[in-house]
Design brief:
Blueprint (H helix, E strand, L loop, with lengths): L2 H9 L2 E6 L3 E5 L7 E4 L1 E5 L5 E4 L1 H9 L4 E5 L1 E2 L2 E2 L2 H16 L8 E6 L3 H14 L3 E6 H9 L9 E6 L3 E8 L2 E9 L2 H12 L10 H11 L5 H20 L2 H9 L2 E4 L8 H9 L3 E2 L7 H10 L2 H8 L1
Parallel strand pairs: 1-9, 9-10, 11-14, 14-15
Antiparallel strand pairs: 1-2, 2-3, 4-5, 4-6, 7-8, 11-12, 12-13
Helix pairs in contact: 3-4, 5-11, 8-10
Amino acid sequence: MGFGKKWNAFWSPSVALAFDRESLWSVNDPMAEPRRSAACVAVREKDRKVVLAGDEAARVQAGGGTGVNVIQYSRRGTLIDYDAAEAAIRHELRIQMGSRLRLTPRVLVATSQGDTEKRVVKDALIHAGARDVITIPRLMAAAIGTGLDVQQSKAETLIYVDRDWCGVAVIGRAEILASWESSGALEQVLVERAWRGRKAGDDAAVDFDAMYRRLMDRGVEMDPACEAYVRGVWEQYRILLGKLSAADAKEARAGQIHLVGPCAQIPGLKALFATIGGRAVVVPPRAEAVVILGCRSVLSEIGWILKSVK
């Protein structure tokens, strides 16, 4: 990087952020390795003041600390606790800014495509100290981070799976040609498993976090609930194909399915998608990080992007 670019990067800093159910991702340089931290904060019970954020808060939760509550602020593809999210974002921006703490950064953030979700995330970032905020669809960022050439005319298909959010997109010509997003995702599988395993008269609360960890470790092979979920995703994909032009639909059908997201590498999930859909499915090496990697790729162009939308 030349002196001019370094000078501009110092005085006009930019930070990219991305959320999933378990993690807050951030990066401040197109060449840097993204930072990952737990998407939670610890608050004092007596006054709800945030005392810890990220991995430190997660360690308190794991250790069963007293006098504090640990709050997860990212659920179903958006922010569900505004105050907790604002505190976590402010903490993350301080880490990324370092010695430039007094400078307010421009922030690129990946979100779902709903207007309400984008507004919530934008407001939280502004209150946390961002100077400008620009959003990029989570599915587009994932496609870029996967390595797809989104500028080409060929229609490519991407499926993003998180614990409680799922998205399917057909992307080509630098735009999302058709997409579907839904909350629930593998959380639906956990609920179905819990329901099937519950005995008459059993009113004990289910530990869904423990169930999710077992799912991540043991996989989805021969699981009727997972099979039903995957069939539902394929049906939504077929609906998307019907919304495309004949040429785009043909290209999308002929190509591979790119399976990404925090849950993409669950044992057996790739094979299940391939078997039920009858299509070739590929999972990139860093499937859980593709959204922030895509944001990192776009970060070098954020100045031009902000000028173009003002």
